[in-house]
Design a protein that fits this description.
Blueprint (H helix, E strand, L loop, with lengths): L1 E6 L4 H29 L4 H26 L3 E6 L4 H14 L2 E7 L2 E6 L2 H10 L4 E5 L3 E6 L1 H13 L6
Antiparallel strand pairs: 1-2, 2-6, 3-4, 4-5, 5-6
Helix pairs in contact: 1-2
Length: 164
Amino acid sequence: MRSTVISYRPKFLQIVLSMLVIVVLYALAGGAFYLLASILGDASIYSYLDGSWPVIVLFPVMCSVIHAYSSRQHQFCVSGLKNAAAVTEWTIESLKKEGLRVRTVNGNEFVLESKKKYNRTLGHWLGTELVKVTYTNHQVKATGHYRYTDVLNSRIRSGKTGGR
């Protein structure tokens, strides 16, 4: 039995979507701040944008790139198995202990999602929280966020596989 972890590059669409979410949140916060400043004092939109345009442009770009790299997909693969179905069952049970539930089953492919509503919402918008487990005759692959693939890798390497 051999296990490997592969890190993928973030997708460009994920960077764009996270930037869109950050820009909307940043615009709402900036708009509320500007509204409060205009009510309490003598502030114009030009004076507000005059010194803060680099922050308005660079902050969402920087945050979206950081978010995209921190939530990129990783693939955990266990190969050279005699009974891949039993290891797949162990993998799914281990992920359920981490707060996931089975979303869909399609033959030899299982898709798991978080039980937490907040994670599911961001996961559906940005595509970061789904874990896909597939198996063939001699290997099992789990693709998803690093926190889930790392748990599986740690349990395999430490021998906490429940006798499988």
